[in-house]
């Protein structure tokens, strides 16, 4: 049984909920990623911030990214996967919530990220095809 811990990219970095969107954009650039988990001061995951969120919810509506807080863009409860959850659970969660990346948590601590590409490398083709189809339909 393949687990999230086995396919994830370890060492995911958070952007603090009180940090600015500009700081988040700089961090995304440095790390070469398009999304960052948003973590509170209690180290608990508050949500995800994507490059699209920055464009649509900040720049597109005329907000100043140097003033907007990352935590203000966290919406609802973050969709996560447990580090020891199996590949079937990863597929189900991604498909059900139509997300391309999942923060991996151990207890309440962020330990990594599982992206669509991680799943594509780890699982047989038919299962990957099913996931891609689920994510591509509205």
Write a brief structural summary:
The chain is α/β, with parallel strands linked by helices.
What's the total number of strands? 7
Please state the oligomeric state of the protein chains shown: single chain
Overall pLDDT confidence: 87
According to CATH, the fold-level topology is CBS-domain
Q: Helix count?
A: 6
What order do the helices and strands follow? HEEHEEHEHEEHH
* Distance N to C terminus: 30 Å
The strand line-up of the biggest sheet is 1-7-6-5
Helicity level: 25-40%
Low-confidence stretches: none
Global structural class: alpha/beta
CATH class value: Alpha Beta
What is the CATH H-level superfamily?
CBS-domain
Shape: globular
Overall tally of domains: 1
Portion of residues in beta strands equals 15-25%
| Rg (C-alpha, Å) | 15 Å
Give the SSE map.
Layout: H1 4-7, E1 9-10, E2 15-16, H2 21-31, E3 35-39, E4 45-50, H3 51-58, E5 81-82, H4 87-97, E6 101-106, E7 109-115, H5 116-122, H6 125-136
Helix pairs in contact: 4-6
Structure notes:
- The protein is an alpha/beta fold.
- The protein has a single domain (4-136), classed as CBS-domain (Roll), CATH 3.10.580.
- It is 38% helix and 22% strand.
- It contains six helices and seven strands.
- Strands 1-7-6-5 form a four-stranded mixed β-sheet. Strands 2-3-4 form a three-stranded mixed β-sheet.
- Strand 6 and strand 7 (109-115) form a beta hairpin.
- It is globular, with a radius of gyration of 15 Å.
- The two termini are 30 Å apart.
């Amino acid at each position: 049984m393949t687990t999230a811990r086995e396919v994830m990219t370890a060492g995911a970095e958070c952007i603090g909920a009180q940090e600015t969107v500009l700081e988040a954009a700089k961090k995304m650039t440095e790390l070469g990623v398009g999304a960052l988990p948003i973590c509170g001061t209690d180290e608990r995951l508050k949500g995800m911030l994507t490059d699209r969120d920055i464009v649509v919810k900040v720049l597109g509506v005329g907000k100043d990214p140097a003033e907007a807080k990352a935590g203000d863009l966290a919406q609802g409860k973050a969709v996560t996967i447990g580090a020891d959850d199996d590949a079937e659970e990863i597929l189900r969660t991604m498909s059900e919530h139509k997300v391309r990346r999942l923060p991996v948590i151990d207890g309440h601590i962020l330990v990594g990220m599982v992206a669509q590409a991680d799943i594509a490398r780890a699982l047989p083709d038919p299962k990957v095809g099913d996931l891609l189809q689920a994510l591509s339909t509205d």
